[in-house]
Amino acid sequence: MQENPLFDGLFKYKIATAFTIVIFGASGDLTAKKLIPALYSLFSHGFISNFKIIGFARSKWDSKFFKEKITDILKQHPVHSADTTALPDFINCISYISAPYDTDEGYELLKQRTAASAQVVYYLATPPVMYEPVIARLGSNNLSRYDQKSTKIVVEKPFGYDLASAEALNSHLLSIFDEKQVYRIDHYLGKETVQNIMVYRFGNGIYEPIWNSNYIEHVQITVAEKSGIGGRGSYYENAGAIRDMLQNHLLQLLSLVAMEAPNDLQPDSIRNEKLKVLKAIRPIDRRSSMESLVRAQYGGGIIDGETVKSYREEHGVAPDSETETYVGVKLFIDTWRWSGVPFFLRTGKRLSRRSTEISIQFKTPPHLLFGRDRTAQLNPNSLTLAIQPDEGITFRFNSKIPGFDTKMRTVNMSFSYGSSFAEKSPEAYERLLLDVMLGDNTLFTRNDEIECAWRFISNLITAYREEDKNRLLFYPAGGAGPEEADMLINRYGIKWRKL
Amino acid sequence: MEETMNRELNPESIENKINADLEKQPAHNIRACLFNLIFIYNIFREHLVSELLDFLFGKRPARIIHLQQTEKPVSSSYVKVRCYPDPQNNQVCFQEIIIQNGKDEIGNAPGTWVPLLIHEIPVIIVWLDSLQPFPSMLHTISTLADKVIFCTEANHLLGEDPLTVCRNIERQLIVRNENSTPGKPVVSDLTWFRSLPLRQQTALLFNPVSMRQYIYEIKDITLHGISQSEALLYLVWLASRLNWKSTDVKSGLPRFMDGRGNRVGIHMRDDTARKVVFITNDGQEFSINRIDEEGGECIINERHVLLDELDSLDHDPLYYDALNKIRENE
């Protein structure tokens, strides 16, 4: 076929080709709060134009009611309510199927409605317990593979409850779909600043030579939340901070910070490097769990001047719940690059401040030129990548205080996204949904990544369950977490960064 | 917004005024700047530049120097600071210095405004003043710049011939072998980006497999409702992609011969609707008539393009190749 020389270099952005997205769990919160606003934003910005949205759920709604619900959602949305000019066209693309997930009735109708679509995306926004029947029915109704059709499936977290359930879910999913059709979503990876970690590391020549155990003393990764569990009590009771945050968000951040440079930006090149990191995390066993892990649960307290309930008083939570809402963990990555460098990860709910950041702390100079006593008072250099809420990068270093004496103090060099690039970054779900339509799975988790992360987490859970002394601790809401978490890090002569 | 009149042209005094106005801003990060942006334009275009900057305001912090060309006998200046708070109360500020160059030419003198450039950040010049003849000042200041952005449509509206303007830009500023003269700035043209929808639609028209056979069979092109400057850039793009040879023309639109040495007919039609009609060697007719961009003075329509251009210091190789077609048969 003759080439088209006119095409080169003209199309800067990829525009999604025609598609139908089927949202299972369309009457739920995720659809209302994230998926519909993200799809509307993509539509109003011209990234998608030829599409259909089919809501699929058990709620006894019809298309008219679903359209009204979506209209209300968008009219009340904090961003989209300001401009609803594209709303009528958007609503026209929507329909709804009310049916059980585990009978063929709805799927037959779905087959008719998607018959003319060249690309169909199934989005599992149901409770996880419904994944298996939906996947099975998509398979048995021949909706997973078509000869002339591209089909994809997006699976929300939690992807499994432990290693065994994750393996079972992967196995079931891959008996119906091919891995290249599967998009396991971790919305953290859709955040602009998380994507910037790779740009920052591999787009600047200065960091790579010092990004190793020769220069880095330790790394801290913090995902602190001020909010509690909201209305998710029954879900959270079975998950806890380890499954809800550590298994996915924190380990994904860790892998981006610690990975080797990929050969190229192909999805599998990046995911292969991330997988190597996950595989190299030293397992935490019963013996090491006492000094490597802190689990805690929030009690009552004060946040923003308001009294808040303890976790055990939350709706849907057992009064004697042993579920952790805070976890602090010390990890080692057994590779040449990271040999001996501790990684401290913590996440918790009802902490004093919302903050997600990665802080790289460098070693002090090898020769204490300015005297041991003075140097000891100084902070080592650190590089902090703030991911939310104030996205930016801060480098901390020491400087001489003007005067006749050689006094030093720590100063900061800061880059703030807010004051440099003021326009709004795309929401994580916008970016990820568009990537699904475009067939780019770089920012999605592969089956082996998921299983590797679960292998580490399952070992961790087994270890603390076997170790009686590793009991659940408590911390007051509005604080920085349990005191014992300080001991986790203090024994290295360092402390957690202030929240 | 703080605005301080400053009749003096002393850089230190101007800097002090800027600092004083910045100090009055309520929040932190007011001094962040991503680039120096120098606008050079006749004062009668002030409102257009102002609209352009209003679009950029709140998106990127910058030190902006206006070199307004006026008929006043004596040059003067004033400063303006305006900041836009984001939700975290970071302030995205414009530090603007408006130098009104008079007949004394002191305002234009690099000694007046070069000390006002912030070090270590890019210098981007937006040249909206005359390019015919090529101004000697542009030679001088382009050595300071990382990028020079033109708008040949704006020059056309000044009564200048687009072909001559583009030829001047190509001759004076485009570096063929970048490694040999690293000091030269990147050059871009807002009118080039204005022609992007036209180029995209053309590429899409000939993209279906059934249409590929006609790509090298174009015998005649009629452009409806497209300005001469945009038509010029569009045609030299086509010529560069299809390996047409250009023939020597002093002004107006260039003429081209296709790969077989046959002349390609070019026709311009005044029209309100923007349309391009192609006739092939076997007499078939194809047209593009869904070109979304509207007419008007390009610097207003290309505000979003300017933002992209300010974010990148790379050149567009397609643009450089297209301009090379203008030079080909000189």
Structural summary, described in words:
The complex is a heterodimer of chains A (499) and B (330). Chain A is of the alpha/beta class. Chain A is 35% helix and 22% strand. Chain A folds into 2 domains: 16-156, Rossmann fold, CATH 3.40.50.720; 189-426 and 472-490, Dihydrodipicolinate Reductase, domain 2 (2-Layer Sandwich). Chain B has 330 residues and is an alpha/beta fold. Helices cover 32% and strands 26% of the residues of chain B. In chain B, the strands form 2 sheets. Chain B has an 8-stranded mixed β-sheet with strand order 1-4-5-3-2-6-7-8. A 6-stranded mixed β-sheet of chain B has the order 10-11-12-9-13-14, with helices on one face. The radius of gyration of chain B is 22 Å and the shape is elongated. Chain A binds chain B through residues 1-11, 389-390, 416, 418-423, and chain B through 29, 32, 34, 58-61, 84, 86-88, 90-92, 196, 199-200, 202-203, 206-207, 209, 212-213, 215, 238, 241-242, 316-318.
Helix and strand topology:
The complex is a heterodimer of chains A (about 500) and B (about 325).
Chain A: E1 19-24, H1 29-44, E2 51-57, H2 63-75, H3 87-92, E3 94-98, H4 105-113, E4 119-124, H5 131-140, E5 150-155, H6 163-176, E6 182-184, H7 192-202, E7 216-224, H8 233-258, H9 267-280, H10 286-292, E8 293-303, E9 306-308, E10 326-332, E11 342-348, E12 355-362, H11 372-377, E13 382-388, E14 392-400, E15 408-416, H12 417-420, H13 428-438, H14 447-466, E16 473-477, H15 483-490
Parallel strand pairs in A: 1-2, 1-4, 2-3, 4-5, 5-6, 7-11, 8-16
Antiparallel strand pairs in A: 7-12, 8-9, 8-10, 10-11, 12-13, 13-14, 14-15
Helix pairs in contact in A: 1-13, 5-6, 6-14, 8-9, 8-14, 9-14, 10-14
Chain B: E1 2-6, H1 11-23, E2 35-42, H2 46-56, E3 62-69, E4 76-85, E5 91-101, H3 110-113, E6 123-127, H4 136-142, E7 147-150, H5 152-157, H6 162-173, E8 186-189, H7 190-194, H8 196-205, E9 218-224, H9 228-242, E10 245-247, E11 255-257, E12 263-269, E13 275-280, E14 285-288, H10 298-301, H11 303-311, H12 317-327
Parallel strand pairs in B: 2-3, 2-6, 3-5, 6-7, 7-8, 9-12
Antiparallel strand pairs in B: 1-4, 4-5, 9-13, 10-11, 11-12, 13-14
